[in-house]
Design a protein that fits this description.
single chain, Heat Shock Protein 90, 5-stranded antiparallel β-sheet, 2 helices
């Protein structure tokens, strides 16, 4: 896991995306810290649930949520401002399945 902590609202928004996207099927998650922004990608088999709540949170934080649908899978990409709370390690990446 990254050593970096983010403001609670950023972490809770990312967590909400992961919880919603992963409830229907297995998912693959990647998190990339680019310094000023953090990008969370969630790939799932099948369709994603309604992510309006996450999109609203992202918009409030000046972030963005995009969803792409392929024939048998979907991807949600969440980009949020990364105002670091504890440390500032840039370009840190984590992939979990």
């Amino acid at each position: 896991m990254p050593d970096t902590r983010y403001p609670a609202v950023v972490e809770s928004t990312a967590y909400r995306l992961l919880a919603l996207a992963s409830e229907r099927s297995p998912s693959t998650v990647s998190i990339d810290d680019h310094g000023e922004t953090i990008t969370i990608r969630v790939d799932v088999d099948g369709d994603l649930p309604d992510l309006t709540e996450v999109r609203d949170r992202a918009t409030t934080l000046s972030g963005q949520l995009t969803v792409s649908v392929r024939s048998t899978s979907s991807r949600a990409t969440l980009v949020l401002p990364a105002q670091h709370g504890v440390s500032s390690q840039n370009d840190q990446s984590l992939t979990r399945t």
